[in-house]
Design a protein that fits this description.
By secondary structure, the protein is mainly alpha-helical. Helix content is 50%, strand content 7%. The chain has one domain.
Length: 88
């Protein structure tokens, strides 16, 4: 809960949420990046334990997916720290 303002009818303080639409938009984008990173990280295993699959060490699983997860976490931190009430 953020600032208290009187509503239009003058019936006392009105509660206002801390996070606004812009915060939730950035949070959704961050969550989407994290989920996409984990999806790209999955797979590459082998059904037979005696066979080694080199596919687990490709660019997508070693570089791209963890980078997407870290970018998503950074977007989440930005969404939490974003102040939508800042004067324009």
């Amino acid at each position: 809960m953020g600032k208290k303002e009187t509503n239009k009818m003058g019936q006392g303080p009105q509660q206002e949420f801390i996070f606004q639409e812009k915060n939730y938009l950035f949070r959704f984008i961050g969550i989407a990046c994290i989920v996409l990173g984990f999806i790209l990280m999955s797979g590459g295993g082998s059904d037979d334990p005696s066979i080694f699959n080199e596919d687990i060490f490709n660019f997508r699983r070693i570089r791209l997916a963890p980078t997407l997860v870290l970018i998503g976490l950074g977007i989440e931190v930005y969404a939490i720290l974003l102040n939508p009430h800042k004067n324009k």
